[in-house]
Amino acid sequence: MEPIRIAEYTFRAQVADRWRDRRVFLLGDAAHLTPPFIGQGLGAGLRDAANLAWKLAAVLRGSLPEAVLDTYQSERKAHARALIRTANLVGSLMTQGGDLGNALRRSLLPRLVLLPWLRDLALSSKTPALRRSTLVRRPWLRRGLAGSLCPNAPLDPADPGHRFDDLARGWFALVTTERPAEALCAEVRRRGAVLVVAAPGTVLHRWLRGGGARAAVVRPDGTVLRAGRDALDVCLSLPALRRRSAHPPTA
Questions:
Q1: What's the start-to-end Cα distance of the chain, in Å?
Q2: pTM > 0.85
């Protein structure tokens, strides 16, 4: 091989100290710079926008207090830092070590696919869960679904084109594996949220059961606010937001 063009470039791995100054917020590359090795720079910026936009809208409508805007940095900064550290680690594994590192990569990398757990880890799109905040009710002593993303899965295996996001439409949602009683339906309507029943055999049903839960409150950005086994108790975590429609849809 004869190189005919060589271009050198540098990258940064940085996180801003403050992401908010009164009415000014930093998002995307203004808040954090991510090395390119895991392709998460743009994704992190989109998550910033998704995290902040619905909170700003709710505050401007008067549905939530202004204090919830402080959760933007507390939730996103730690998440962005975790991705940057992962990118740095992957970058070191890909490029460091000189001739010895190159030799190890040539001999080991083709064989790593023979390890199923490592292959699944490399192909997984799972992102780190957000830390606890007033809008992420994670348990102290165990892991759960709170802080993770709800899958945008088909609501009916026979209708793959109709997905969770099509029903939630940027509002809070209560996802449950149980057939809801009238009291639960009324409470969800009162709080201006969407009720989603995860039928057996669906991705959402397996997702809830895999997280040891029967119900979960999902925020407008797709993040789980709280999950648990009592649907009505979990429902009480829903903020009372005004909706455009007095009768939110159910599925």
A1: 58
A2: no
